[in-house]
């Protein structure tokens, strides 16, 4: 099992960074393609990424959607003695939930399930939990227990324990989801785990940061309490949030070969580790401009031409953030090469893992800012 590690620097005031390794595992799409089930899966559980970011659902029911391309997850433990779970660390939601032994859905059968009866520190909250997905739902109940993340033990953390889960979750590599957005987004007024880390003085700085490795299953890491200079080069661009619910910022424009192809005059974007792709209302403009062709809703390019594809540049807060073809194309010769740009309804853009793999992403609650620096 991967273990968290702590990096401490000897300075005037001791500063400790708490690191949690992330694994880039197989995505649901890859698993289904290997089993020859992807074409059957797609129409049954269509991808509806923008449901997750409906402000009307910001309080009460937390809305999410299936994402067949999510790859990054890490290990946490819950209870006394600890029970281990693999979770997706999601800056686009605020609740922590995992499967429970009371879950009878097929989606729970191949995941670790929490047994409250085996934890001496578990307390039942007595309230039900319902998280709606684009293609189904998770229902369960709430409880309190000790949750250890990246070497940090958070006592009396509220957690969701599933009793039913949508069928598509059986293909998700992770067992559950740990939300890292703002408290107002949390269902049942649950306090997010990072807020408890702050209130319990477990971190020296009210920030966390992500490094997502592109190539291997190892190397990706989530850091609590500060910034790790080993994972970025150059300076950090600090971008003030335009809305303190998600990690939402203003994008000035998107260009290809110097031509504005999207977001002309500015648009709103959410930096989201819980979304794998880049989603936006004008992503098809980008796909067309880079020479991708539409294949049943997937935009494809020739796998042999990736190195020759044009860069896509996001202009944010007076700086440029460029993604090369090698960064925005995924797939293989066997299953085809897809771009990482997907058209989404509404006005919001989602800067998911395709973007974050190129830029070390820092989330500062102290300053209500997102920091971006070139990933090493």
TrEMBL record:
Matching InterPro entries, A to Z? Aspartic_peptidase_A1 (IPR001461), Aspartic_peptidase_AS (IPR001969), Aspartic_peptidase_N (IPR012848), PEPTIDASE_A1 (IPR033121), Peptidase_aspartic_dom_sf (IPR021109)
Disulfide bond annotation, renumbered to this chain: 103-108, 263-267, 303-337
MF terms in GO: aspartic-type endopeptidase activity
Which segments constitute the Peptidase A1 domain? Answer: 72-373
Active-site positions, per UniProt? 90, 272
Q: EC number(s) in its UniProt entry?
A: 3.4.23.1
User: From which residue to which does the signal peptide run?
Assistant: 1-16
Query: Which enzyme class?
Result: hydrolase
Q: In its keyword annotation, does this UniProt entry include Signal? A: yes
One BP annotation, GO:
proteolysis
Question: What are the alphabetically sorted keywords of the record?
Answer: Aspartyl protease, Digestion, Disulfide bond, Hydrolase, Protease, Signal
Q: Which SUPFAM superfamilies match?
A: Acid proteases
| Keyword Hydrolase in annotation | yes
Q: What does the function comment of this entry state?
A: Shows particularly broad specificity; although bonds involving phenylalanine and leucine are preferred, many others are also cleaved to some extent.
- Belongs to which family? Belongs to the peptidase A1 family.
What PANTHER family does the record tag this protein with?
A: BETA-SITE APP-CLEAVING ENZYME, ISOFORM A-RELATED, PEPSIN A-3-RELATED
Protein name as catalogued: pepsin A
Native source species:
Champsocephalus esox
